[in-house]
Amino acid sequence: MPEPKTVLTIAVLGGTGNEGSGLAVRWAASGYKVIIGSRSPERAETRAKELNALIGAEVISGMGNLDAATQADLVVLSVPYSAHKDTLEAVRDALQGKILIDVTVPLQPPKVRTVHLPPGQSAALEAQALLGDEVRVVAAFQNVSAEHLADPEGAIDCDVLVCGNDREAKEQVLRLVEAAGMRGYDAGVLQNAIAVESLTPVLISLNSRYKSKRAGIRITGLDA
Q1: Cβ atoms within 10 A of the Cβ of 223, count?
Q2: pLDDT confidence bin for 147, thresholds 50/70/90
Q3: Can you say whether the dihedral through the CA atoms of 68, 70, 75, 80 is positive or negative?
Q4: Which of 108, 139, 152, 215 could form a disulfide with 193, with the two C-beta atoms 3.0–4.6 Å apart?
Q5: Domains present along the chain, CATH in parentheses
Q6: What is the pLDDT of residues 99-134, one digit of tens each?
Q7: Residue 93: exposed, middle, or buried by beta-carbon count in 10 A (0-12, 13-18, 19+)?
Q8: pLDDT of residue 74
Q9: How far apart are CA 217 and CA 195, in angstroms?
Q10: How are beta strands 33-38 and 99-102 bridged, if at all?
Q11: Which residues pair with 12 in a beta bridge?
């Protein structure tokens, strides 16, 4: 198993879901320590065992969201928008001084193919407002289909746009994008997450129209 340049412990809150699990497996396979977080510690532990069996190594652990966020160096939030605020409030103190990668998209079921701007304009902006300036919120991975992540060794034919107000935090996230087998781009300030999150309903519409589950985005004209 390759060693990353900097060994981090990454907590993936909502890591029992398809998106969070897929990212967790890819980071674990790259040598990072990974914790699956869930509202149910038992569910997190069960999922961690399943993922360890998938990659053939005991490198992923599972625990409740608060414990996971407390023990991690960097935290990833991959939950439905309906659970976004409650999850953040429950772990707010544990996130202080850390980077939070917010993967959340403010979808409004059943109209998941329609762009919805929440009261704070984007989930990532709402996270930053709720958590305060001591947490460096970075928006990323919203446009990557869970279908791409299902195979931990499969190539992913899409790019990742990374938005945030802290340059060092974005650079750290871009390294994690690469570790997960994707190409990432610094897409500017956190305000730009409004546009990035809004692409997801468009991709869902494309998947529906063209009978696919793998629609993504590619940035052209730039050197990776």
Answers
A1: 3
A2: confident
A3: positive
A4: 139
A5: 9-209 (3.40.50.720)
A6: 999 999 999 999 999 999 999 999 999 999 999 999
A7: exposed
A8: 98
A9: 13
A10: unpaired
A11: 36, 76
- Report residue 105 as tokens: 């998209």
The closest alpha carbon to 136, from 124, 154, 149, belongs to: 124
pLDDT single digits (tens) 170-215: 999 999 999 999 999 999 999 999 999 999 999 999 999 999 888 9
Could you tell me which residues are beta bridge partners of residue 186? 162
Nearest to 38 by CA among 15, 57, 8: 15
- CA 138, CA 118: separation in Å to the nearest integer? 18
Q: Both tokens of residue 62?
A: 């599972």
Q: Dump the DSSP string for 82-109.
A: GGHHHHHHHHHHHHTTSEEEE------T
